[in-house]
């Protein structure tokens, strides 16, 4: 209310004056004349000596002159201001002597005011023009210096190209990179049929002749027409620096490109995958997995991409993008669960076949169901958007699947090729990885034709890195140019093959991206979802993702196994430490187990012992008859003993299989079958779902 009242008062009292503002030509003249008139009137009335006014005027003129010299005002300005003080002081002295209230005094004062205003305006304009000229002169000097630097660079590289390549070029322009990592030369080739390829082939010699640092290159690429060439010269080796994935997790789009790394000029390089597939090769230790995570990060940020991942190596490429969300480790801003960073993950052969079959059905259904959309858009490419998202299939070591001699794996490879062949127009593309750029990987015509976005991570590795096969037609590419982890060569239809490096993406960044992009992920369109059916709709069911949980050790907060966490659990070292010459480890373990159980509980009678030799069980005694089933299978008995020994914490199939693998070679699938049978007959109880599922013996199961 107080603010409103003040505003109304100010509005009613007229315009607000800014008393802190400086004087202009008019206000300055008014201030000077009214001040002189006031001093003259007061001095005449009080009989003040007139010399005082002249002394004050002289002091003012001197002070303004000194101040003007300090800020480097022009002589015209200094003279105008000093004259204004002296003229004003002279009139005041005369008016105090002869009287300020005469027509002569008032007329002369008005004339002086007009003169002061006009002179001030003139000097202000002069100072502004003088300042602009000074700035322009500085800019001309900078431009001249830069032009001189560019002329020196142009002359130097004209001589170098002539000396190394035997070509005389004419430099049209030199552009310094904003990142400060180098420059580009735009040159015109001489007549006679010379091409940029001749300069590109001498990249190594040009770099050596220019004495560039290790990791820096001089690479040639086509100019605006075939008679021009662009030479990019790197002077700072940005590839040896490790740069983390950009912290800006803002939205991306398939149509504007997905950043996969940065070039030697420190600028991002984009991959456009609406119609193209991608092929990534890199030996072990080259940073290929890290690059895959960077690619998945870009896909997660896009609002028109759904990512499906196949990794038959325990699903390692996709698990960091799935488990934190499925396990409830990450929450949204409102406390609600977040969606996984990828839309589907297959880590087994069966799940991978299911995913690929689904992709084929989706592609075919889209061809039939979106004919009206294609007709309205007058195109044969399905318009991709958040409503009809593109499906990106990321297949780790997918190129090896295509070249595998195994009959079953070949079926998977045939399905991958079918997706690549039929699904381009309908918005399903693939990203395949491989361990090397070898003939077996690149022999498939479909891969060479469709995978126009290619990356070769070298890490200094020379074996299996045939860059001429990976980037046919490109010259001057050498593995030793990219000896750093995560560095290599990348080529796209929009950008020729050249050095690049992938960002280092940290595990905590993956979690941050999952949380930041959860609401951004599109959902599968209705037509595609209908074609995908239950195989897609139930992809996150507990039985479908059980393998994800079983990949990791069942450990608690202290890192111990379930059997070790049991408060009264047994020491099962007998499985490994006891000699096998006389008594098997299983029998010795069971004997010790029964002894401890008998010491605490009354047990049920052994059917193999006569009734008169068996102590009477106490009411509600523990029935261990399950231990006596399948007496011909020691592994079965040992597995049940491990389940019972796990106590209230319970255990999982993987933990039991690992404990029995050394002595019995028991597989996880066998243990899963036993656990299901025990759950069915009531011997065990399953607690939890998905990644939190545990099996607990009924003796330790919580009361319902």
UniProtKB/TrEMBL annotation:
One of its GO terms (molecular function) is ATP binding. Residues 266-466 form the FtsK domain. ATP binds at residues 282-289. Keywords: ATP-binding, Nucleotide-binding. It comes from the Bacteria. The keyword Nucleotide-binding applies. The keyword Thylakoid does not apply. This is FtsK domain-containing protein. It comes from Streptomyces calvus. The lineage of its organism: Bacteria, Bacillati, Actinomycetota, Actinomycetes, Kitasatosporales.
């Amino acid at each position: 209310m107080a603010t409103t009242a003040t505003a109304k008062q100010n509005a009613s009292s007229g315009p607000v004056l800014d008393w802190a503002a400086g004087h202009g030509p008019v206000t300055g003249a008014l201030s000077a004349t009214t001040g002189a008139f006031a001093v003259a009137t007061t001095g005449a009335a009080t009989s003040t000596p007139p010399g005082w006014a002249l002394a004050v005027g002289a002091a003012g003129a001197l002070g303004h002159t000194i101040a003007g010299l300090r800020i480097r005002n022009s002589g015209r300005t200094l003279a105008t201001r000093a004259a204004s003080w002296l003229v004003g002081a002279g009139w005041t002295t005369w008016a105090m002597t002869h009287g300020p209230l005469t027509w002569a005094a008032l007329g002369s004062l008005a004339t002086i005011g007009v003169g002061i205003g006009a002179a001030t305006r003139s000097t202000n304009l002069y100072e502004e023009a003088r300042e602009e000229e000074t700035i322009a002169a500085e800019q001309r000097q900078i431009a001249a210096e830069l032009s001189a630097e560019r002329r020196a660079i142009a002359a130097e590289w004209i001589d170098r190209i002539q000396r190394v390549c035997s070509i005389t070029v004419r430099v049209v322009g030199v552009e310094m990179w904003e990142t400060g990592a180098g420059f580009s030369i735009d040159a015109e080739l001489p007549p006679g049929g010379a091409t940029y390829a001749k300069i590109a082939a001498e990249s190594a010699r040009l770099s050596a002749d220019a004495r560039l640092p290790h990791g820096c290159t001089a690479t040639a690429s086509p100019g605006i027409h075939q008679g021009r060439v662009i030479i990019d010269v790197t002077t700072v080796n940005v590839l040896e620096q490790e740069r983390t994935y950009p912290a800006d997790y803002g939205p991306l789009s398939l149509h504007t490109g997905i950043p996969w790394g940065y070039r030697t000029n420190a600028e991002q390089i984009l991959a456009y995958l609406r119609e193209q597939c991608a092929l990534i090769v890199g030996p072990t230790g080259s940073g290929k997995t890290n690059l895959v995570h960077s690619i998945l990060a870009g896909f997660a940020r896009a609002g028109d991409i759904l990512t499906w991942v196949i990794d038959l190596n325990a699903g390692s490429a996709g698990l960091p993008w799935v488990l934190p969300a499925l396990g409830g480790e990450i929450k949204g801003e409102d406390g609600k669960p977040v969606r996984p960073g990828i839309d589907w993950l297959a880590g087994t052969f069966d799940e991978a076949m299911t995913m690929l079959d689904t992709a084929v059905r989706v592609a075919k259904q889209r061809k039939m169901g979106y004919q009206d959309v294609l007709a309205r858009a007058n195109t044969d490419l399905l318009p991709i958007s958040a409503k009809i998202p593109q499906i990106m299939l990321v297949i780790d070591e997918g190129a090896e699947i295509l070249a595998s001699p195994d009959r079953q794996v070949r079926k998977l490879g045939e399905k991958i090729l079918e997706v690549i062949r039929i699904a381009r127009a309908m918005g399903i593309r693939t990203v395949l990885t491989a361990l090397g750029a070898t003939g077996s990987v690149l022999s498939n015509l479909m891969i060479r034709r469709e995978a126009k976005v290619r990356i070769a991570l070298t890490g200094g590795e020379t074996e299996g890195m045939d860059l001429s096969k990976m980037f046919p037609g490109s010259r001057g590419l050498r593995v030793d140019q990219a000896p750093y982890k995560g560095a290599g060569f990348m080529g796209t239809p929009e950008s020729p093959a050249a050095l690049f490096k992938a960002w280092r993406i940290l595990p905590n960044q993956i979690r941050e991206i999952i949380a930041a992009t959860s609401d951004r992920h599109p959902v599968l369109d209705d037509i595609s979802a209908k074609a995908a059916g239950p195989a897609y709709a139930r992809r996150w069911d507990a039985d479908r993702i059980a393998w994800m949980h079983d990949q990791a050790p069942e450990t608690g907060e202290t890192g111990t196994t379930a059997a070790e966490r049991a408060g009264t659990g047994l020491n099962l070292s007998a499985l490994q430490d006891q000699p096998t010459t006389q008594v098997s480890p299983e029998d010795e373990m069971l004997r010790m187990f029964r002894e401890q159980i008998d010491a605490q509980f009354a047990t049920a009678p052994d059917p193999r012992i006569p009734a008169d030799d068996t102590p009477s069980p106490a009411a509600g005694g523990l029935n261990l008859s399950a231990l006596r089933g399948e007496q011909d299978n020691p592994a079965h008995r040992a597995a049940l003993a491990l389940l019972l020994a796990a106590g209230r914490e319970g255990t999982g199939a993987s933990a039991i299989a690992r404990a029995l693998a050394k002595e019995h070679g028991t597989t996880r699938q066998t243990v899963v079958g036993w656990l299901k049978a025990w759950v069915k007959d009531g011997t065990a109880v399953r607690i939890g779902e998905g990644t939190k599922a545990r099996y607990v013996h009924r003796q330790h199961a919580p009361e319902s």
